[in-house]
Amino acid sequence: MQVDQAKVEVIENLPSPISVKGVRSFLGHAGFYRRFINDFSK
C-alpha cells in the first residue's frame, strides 16, 4: 500500500493555517494519512 505522491505534494505545499478553523481543517486532512507516517503522534 502506498500513498499517492501527488497528494503528498499538495499537502506539503498548503499555506500555513492562520486560524483555529484552518488548523483543525489541516489536522483533519493530515490525520487521514497518519497510518502511513512514522511517528505521526510526535
From TrEMBL:
Record-linked Gene3D superfamilies: 3.30.70.270
Coiled-coil region list: none
Superkingdom, taxonomy of origin: Eukaryota
InterPro entries: DNA/RNA_pol_sf (IPR043502), Rev_trsase/Diguanyl_cyclase (IPR043128), Viral_Replic_Matur_Polypro (IPR051320)
Protein name (record): Reverse transcriptase
Lineage, top ranks: Eukaryota, Viridiplantae, Streptophyta, Embryophyta, Tracheophyta
